[in-house]
Specification:
single chain, 201 residues, Nucleotidyltransferase, domain 5, alpha/beta, 5-stranded mixed β-sheet, 5 helices, 5 strands
């Protein structure tokens, strides 16, 4: 490779931040059972990072595991508890669930804050925590993040955070939820899958 001046294409490094144990832990209630038969019974949430020339942009999402639809999201330049609170607030506002919802999450400190736990209690959300370092416990969200990076970002470094926000918004609300087909949903989009179930019901 050196002789022919070929260089491997590398992904960018993960931003460094210290792991901090959540103040309040929760058991893993889901245990990798991701086949959900009813909407608004199990949600999943997590955070990832996007590189820009202005620094990191963090993305938090909430998915309904019934359809895989992104029902809440938030993007911020700092990895603080507000990013997860804004994402879950959007999800609750959009869906207004009538019953308790299990919400799968990792052991990040943002999900162990007093504000997070109060919000969950007030809105009948039941936290279910992945085991530390086990990405399979929250595989649906990890799969979504992988799709964003492969289909939209493609190792691209955005010039500004605002440009990254605009492109990711477009991917979530226009492409992924409304148009992207999923084999496990019968080759239709999450929105179409939910609408189909509603019409059948």
């Amino acid at each position: 490779m050196r002789r022919h001046k070929i260089r491997a294409e590398r992904g960018y490094k993960m931003p460094s931040y210290k792991y901090s144990k959540p103040a309040v832990a929760a058991p893993d209630r889901l245990k990798q059972q991701f086949t959900i038969t009813k909407p608004d019974t199990v949600w999943a949430t997590d955070i990832t990072y996007i590189r820009t020339n202005q620094g990191w942009l963090y993305l938090a999402v909430v998915l309904d595991l019934y359809s895989g639809k992104v029902i809440g999201w938030s993007m911020k330049p700092a990895l603080a508890k507000e990013i997860v609170l804004d994402a879950i607030l959007m999800a609750v506002w959009r869906r207004s669930p009538n019953e308790k919802v299990i919400i799968q999450l990792d052991q990040g400190s943002q999900y162990g804050s007093d504000e997070w736990n109060r919000f969950c209690t007030e809105h009948d959300l039941v936290p279910s925590m992945s085991r530390r370092g086990n990405c399979y416990d929250n595989a649906a969200v990890e799969s979504f993040f992988s799709g964003v990076k492969k289909e939209k970002i493609r190792r691209h470094i955005f010039r500004t955070r605002e440009k990254a926000k605009a492109d990711i918004f477009d991917y979530i609300e226009v492409i992924y939820n409304r148009a992207r087909r999923h084999q496990h949903l019968g080759n239709i989009s999450p929105k179409a899958y939910e609408q189909q179930a509603l019409n059948v019901g």
